[in-house]
Amino acid sequence: MNHFQSIARVPGDPILSLMEAYRVDSHPGKLDLGVGVYKDTQGLTPIPKAVKLAEQRLLECETSKSYVGGHGDPLFGQLLTRLVLGADSKAITAQRVGATQTPGGTGALRLAADFIRHHLPGRGLWLSAPTWPIHESIFAEAGLQVSHYPYVDADNRLNVEAMLAALSHIPRGDVVLLHACCHNPTGFDLSQADWLRVLEVVKARELLPLIDFAYQGFGDGLEQDAWSVRLFADALPELLITSSCSKNFGLYRERTGALLVCTADAEKLIDIRSQLAFLARNLWSTPPAHGAAVVATILADEELKNVWVDELEQMRVRVTRLREGLVAALAPHGLAQRFAHISQQRGMFSYTGLSPAQVKRLREEYSIYMVGSGRANIAGIDAQRFTQLAQAIAAVCGGR
Ligand SMILES: Cc1ncc(COP(=O)(O)O)c(C=O)c1O
Predict the structure, then answer these.
(1) How far apart are CA 84 and CA 79, in angstroms?
(2) 185 lines ligand 1 (CB under 6 A)
(3) Residue whose CA lies nearest to ligand 1 atom number 6
(4) Which CATH architecture does the domain made up of 67-300 adopt?
(5) Is the pLDDT at 92 greater than 80, yes or no?
(6) Residues 363, 355: contact at Cβ < 8 Å?
(7) Residues 382, 388: Cα–Cα separation, whole Å
(8) CATH H-level superfamily of 14-47+305-397
(9) % of the chain residues with pLDDT over 70
(10) How confident is the model over 189-227, as pLDDT tens digits?
C-alpha cells in the first residue's frame, strides 16, 4: 500500500516563492521589497552588536543545556513583561500577569489559539481585513472560527469608523486580534484617540483582546509603541498579548517570543499558567533557550540594554527616513500626494496602493519584487536607488 499517494501538493507560501524568484533573477538592479525582515544599508539583516556581546557572555558563562521549564526562562519572562507593560505596570505589581516563553511570536499565537479553543469553547476569533496571512491559517488550523472586521478600505485608507461599527456587533465574549503597532501588512496604525474608542467597544461588548506585538520599537519608539498594550492592560482585567523578539532583537531564526496573559487576580494566573504549560508541553515540550537567554542577558544589563536601545532606534529611524525619501523621490513625477500615506504609515511594511497588475509589471519589467497585494517592505529599499525605484513606480502607474 502506498500511504502517501492521495496527498496533494499545497501551494507554496507566496512570499517564499517571491524570494526564490528574486534569488534567480540576474538583473543587476534587482530590488527585494518582499520578504519581511529588516535590512541595513548593505541589504543585509544584521545581528545587533548587543546580541553578539550577549552571546559572548553566554558562551563563557552557560553551564548547562538541560531543558528550560515549560514557561521558559523566568528571568526572560519577567524582563520581557516589563519591556512590554512598563516597569510601573499595575498588572505586574498585582502579580496578575505571566509570560510563557514560546518559539517566536508565531509560537505565542499558536499557543493562544490552542488556549482559546480548549478553554473558551465556541468563542469566535476576529482578525483585521487585511492581516498577516499567517494569522488566518494559525487560528483556522487550531480549529477556531475565524471572521474579519474591516480595517483598510479598497481605496487604501484606514477606516476606523467601519472597524468600530463592526466590532460593536460581534458576539459578546469573542476574541479580537489587534496589532499593537506597525500593522502587517498595511503599515496603517490606530491613533491614541482611536485606541481609546476601540477600548470602549471592547468593554461594552465584553470582548477578549489578543494583542499581537511583533514590532515593538519599529513604529514611534520602544515606549511609544507599547502605549496601546499598556492602556488595555491597565483598563481590563483579562488580556492576551503575543510578543516577538524576532525583529527588534534581530533574533529571527532563534525563535524567541512569549505569550503574556493578564488575569483578574494572582490566584487565577496560577490556574491559567498551569493550563498553558500543559498546552505548550503538547506543542513543543519546552521552548528553545538561546534567543531568550540573549534577550535576558541584554535586558538585565544596563550597558548592554543601552547598546540595544540605540541600535533599535537606528533601525527605526532608517525605516522612517526611507519612507520620507521615497515620497520625496516620487514628487518630481507628480506622485507625492498619491503616495503621501507611505510616510505616515509605521513599521517595516507599506500597503503602497499599487495594484496586483502594477506589482507584476514592476517585477517583470524592473526586477522590483513586492507582494501581490502591493505590500512593500520599506526596509528593503536602497537609499542610493530612490530615483530608480520612483521612475519604475511612475512608469507603471502613469506618473510624469
Ligand atoms: C504581525 C506579526 N505577528 C507575528 C509575527 C511573528 O514573528 P516571529 O514568529 O518570527 O517571532 C510576525 C512576523 O512576521 C508578524 O508580522
Answers:
(1) 9
(2) no
(3) 105
(4) 3-Layer(aba) Sandwich (3.40)
(5) yes
(6) no
(7) 10
(8) Aspartate Aminotransferase, domain 1 (3.90.1150.10)
(9) 100
(10) 999 999 999 999 999 999 999 999 999 999 999 999 999
